[in-house]
What we know:
By secondary structure, this protein is mainly alpha-helical.
Amino acid sequence: MKDRIRQLMEDQHLTQQNFAQMIGISTATLSNIFNGKTNPSLSIVDGIHKSFPQVNVYWVLYGTPPMYQNQASQGVSEEGAADMHQGITDGAAGGADGMKQGSQPSGAASAEPMLDFGAEGAAASPTSPLLFDQPQMQGVNRTPKNIAQAAVKYVDKPQRKITEIRIFYDDQTWETFVPKK
Length: 181
């Protein structure tokens, strides 16, 4: 199950910290799951189900395909992709903003407006979101692995013993003290 959780995290392009925050657990708990110290609990599977409703719970628990409930990679079915393509072409032909008002693809779960990829303008307007304008995050695959450092062992010198103590006085005399053996 830990491999499927890791696969879901990588598929969503999330870091361990972001993934743990989304499903409502600490990063230490997620790290312990990946290291094999603990097993995922029902609350973790429930958190995955609530945060990613498109993910098949049976896939998370048992590995039964498909990973997503509607057989597509990110929650858009083939019909939804065709509807989205139709909405884009209708928007490019019909309106200045390039969006088909009041329509949403049947497989899409969010209410985000569709972008115009038509020939109206080569450059995107400064107010419209760019398709690939997302913050660059360090990916899971590029996360540096913890490299075990070689332990340096310092060999102690043999313990030193006091052989004598001398005290010098200002009248040019001194005393010598020798410990008992």
